[in-house]
Design goal:
Mean pLDDT: 86
Order of helices and strands: HHHHHHHHHHHHHHHH
Strand content: under 5%
Distance between the termini: 44 Å
Largest sheet: none
Length: 316
């Protein structure tokens, strides 16, 4: 199953192999009071004022190292960043060893290991589970655990974490988006549990995507995926889909983006039964980068026309 919950940079994973990560990653600390949802939290949850200050400084160094890595143009150049990343790892190791009850430190460390340039998933999961055990009120932690579980194909467990994150931070659009995306991408898995019906999945997917779009209207990627969801409903709602695509097309400024949506509008018009309007919309797409998509769509139209004509001739 496709797992788009977290972008990765596969070519950079090699860096993780050279970073010394010690067994402290797998330590399990006892429960403690909650900390702030921000990795650079105030002193709380087992963290002293000094620990909070150390974490803030460490997160700053982490951001600087990651920004430097992102600016590199080759694997050879990235090698220069390895010592800085290692020092961040060493800093986190020292911090969690000195403050085993400091949930924010465990959380920040786990999130760091999920960065594309690091991609060390197994120890990251252990860290995040420890943070979650120490403080169950950190939505960013629950979300990332859900991401890792989804990438492993453990979608039922992942959904529970996404739902928990959304309950803790109902105004955060990402968590609603994750719920919609997971249910839509893995609907067959959920249907096999018998706990979900096609109708409940459809309703939940649309509600989750719409809430994400409502909370983050500037995120056109959310709006695009929300419109796409109409295509996979158990009973597609093509008129609603077309209205949604039309609204998105009107918002977009880039011509390539607008024409990409126009192809979706053409497909939707075809599904409604408006063949002439569909072909007219497709004909308006002239961006070179969309030539292949346009040709594929027109081929679909032609194939369906040919199938309809053959069926009519057979019935004569």
């Amino acid at each position: 199953m496709n797992t788009p919950w977290n972008a990765t940079a596969a070519g950079l994973v090699w860096l993780a192999a050279g970073l010394a990560i010690t067994p402290a990653l797998h330590a399990v600390a006892p429960a403690s009071p909650p900390v702030s949802a921000s990795p650079a939290a105030d002193a709380a949850g087992g963290g002293t004022a000094k620990a909070a200050a150390d974490l803030k400084e460490l997160v700053g160094r982490q951001r600087a190292a990651l920004a430097e890595a992102a600016a590199k143009q080759s694997l050879e150049e990235l090698e220069d960043v390895r010592p800085k990343l290692q020092r961040v790892v060493d800093g986190y190791e020292a911090l969690v060893k000195a403050n085993p009850d400091f949930a924010a430190a465990w959380a920040a460390y786990g999130l760091f290991l999920c960065e594309p340039v690091i991609e060390n998933r197994k120890p990251a999961m252990a860290l995040l589970l420890t943070a979650n055990r120490l403080d169950g009120d950190l939505p960013v932690v629950k979300n990332q655990i859900g991401v890792l579980l989804a990438e492993e194909g453990r979608v039922i467990e992942a959904l529970n974490y996404f739902l928990a994150a959304s309950d803790l931070a109902p105004e955060a659009p990402l968590y609603h988006f994750q719920i919609g995306l997971l249910l839509d991408e893995a609907r067959d898995v959920f249907l096999r549990t018998k706990a979900w019906t096609p109708a409940t999945i459809d309703r939940t997917v649309l509600q989750a995507f719409h809430r994400a779009v409502e909370l983050a209207p500037e995120r056109t990627d959310y709006a695009y995926r929300a419109a796409e969801a109409y295509n996979t409903l158990a009973e597609p709602r093509w008129e609603e889909a077309y209205a949604t695509w039309s609204k998105l097309e009107a918002r977009l400024k880039g011509e390539t983006e607008r024409q990409t949506v126009r192809l979706q509008m053409a497909r939707t018009q075809w599904k409604i039964g408006h063949a002439a309007a569909a072909r007219e919309l497709a004909a308006s797409v002239d961006e070179g980068t969309l030539k292949g998509q346009k040709a594929k769509l027109l081929a679909e139209f032609d194939a369906e026309d040919a199938a309809d004509a053959a069926a009519k001739n057979a019935g004569k």
